[in-house]
Amino acid sequence: MKLGILGAGNIARKMAATLNEMEHVEAYAVASRDVQKAREFAQKWNVRKAYGSYEEMLNDPEIDLVYVCTPHALHFEHMMMCLDKGKHVLCEKSFTMNADQARKVLAYGKEKKLLVAEAIWTRYLPMRLVLDQILERRVIGEPHALTANLCYPIKGVKRLTDPALAGGALLDVGVYPINFAMMVFGNEIETIESSCIKTDSGVDESNSITLTFKGDKMAVLHSSMVSTSDRRGSIFGSRGFIEFLNINNCEGINVYDRDYNLVETYKPFKFITGFEHQVEACRKAIEEGELECKQMPHSEIIKVMEVMDTLRSQWGIRFPGE
């Protein structure tokens, strides 16, 4: 499978490095609005073709899948462009600015009979399956509550404070605790309560979120772009609890009984960067004629965006153009 990278920023470099180590996927093309940047990227990361415009790359008939890694506010436009050109698409999180955009993209993908997937890599990592199996075996009994946080001091990154680029902690890092909670408790969310601290530009720099799920389950979540956190997820059950070390890139899972004894522990599988799992999921889905990846179905993409829409509504945050 030949993959085109739309955008040539930091995360694009990580994807290119991943593709260079994969067997069934080629880092075939990269596009940037700056052709020199694209050429330098291609030379450094062993990408066969470099394009100075996104449209030009999407006209290349050899490309099977396009990885979109531009700022959040541009995801809708760029995914629609990919689909219009007949390309399957894997788009970085957060999928779009809002749920309405997500619904339109997914509907167009179905109309064009093309795969549309979100690159929320925690949904695809093998440790997600390990957690699923622990919960299915009822090692901690019935899970009733969880906490999760993800904070990095990244406020200095210009796009994160720019409302026009859909900046803020929520869409950049807050999406991970929300996904973690939904991977554990499902998507039947009954109430959403929250608060945030805003930047001078009017986007959230730190937030606190409480979700209650069907079955009297509660998730307490936090994200921020001005501090460092332990990035930990904890799941509390009737017979014990689980420590999930680093919800953004699992470094281990520890399981404790009700007497606080460590009863099970797991370490991550060896991998290239972790990005290979989402790419491979897309490759298999395309081969099988599927329009979505089972690891992150379209219904979940929309639900996550709806949750974040509700949160921003509570905070009085609207992006330009909404």
State the gist of this model.
Keywords: Oxidoreductase. This protein is of the alpha/beta class and 322 residues long. The chain has helices at 10-19, 35-44, 54-58, 75-84, 99-112, 126-136, 169-185, 276-287, 298-315; strands at residues 2-6, 26-31, 49-51, 65-68, 88-92, 116-119, 143-151, 189-198, 204-213, 217-224, 233-237, 240-245, 252-257, 262-266.
Q: Could you explain the architecture of this structure?
A:
- By secondary structure, the chain is an alpha/beta fold.
- It has two domains: 2-120, NAD(P)-binding Rossmann-like Domain (Rossmann fold, 3-Layer(aba) Sandwich), CATH 3.40.50.720; 126-270, Dihydrodipicolinate Reductase, domain 2, CATH 3.30.360.
- The chain has nine helices and 14 strands.
- It has helices at residues 10-19, 35-44, 54-58, 75-84, 99-112, 126-136, 169-185, 276-287, 298-315; strands at residues 2-6, 26-31, 49-51, 65-68, 88-92, 116-119, 143-151, 189-198, 204-213, 217-224, 233-237, 240-245, 252-257, 262-266.
- The strands form two sheets. Strands 8-9-10-7-11-12-13-14 form an eight-stranded mixed β-sheet, covered by helices on one side. Strands 3-2-1-4-5-6 form a six-stranded parallel β-sheet, sandwiched between helices.
- A hairpin with a 6-residue loop joins strand 12 and strand 13 (252-257).
- Helix 4 (75-84) packs parallel to helix 5 (99-112) and helix 5 packs antiparallel against helix 9 (298-315).
- The two termini are 36 Å apart.
- The model has no long low-confidence stretch (mean pLDDT 97).
- Keywords: Oxidoreductase.
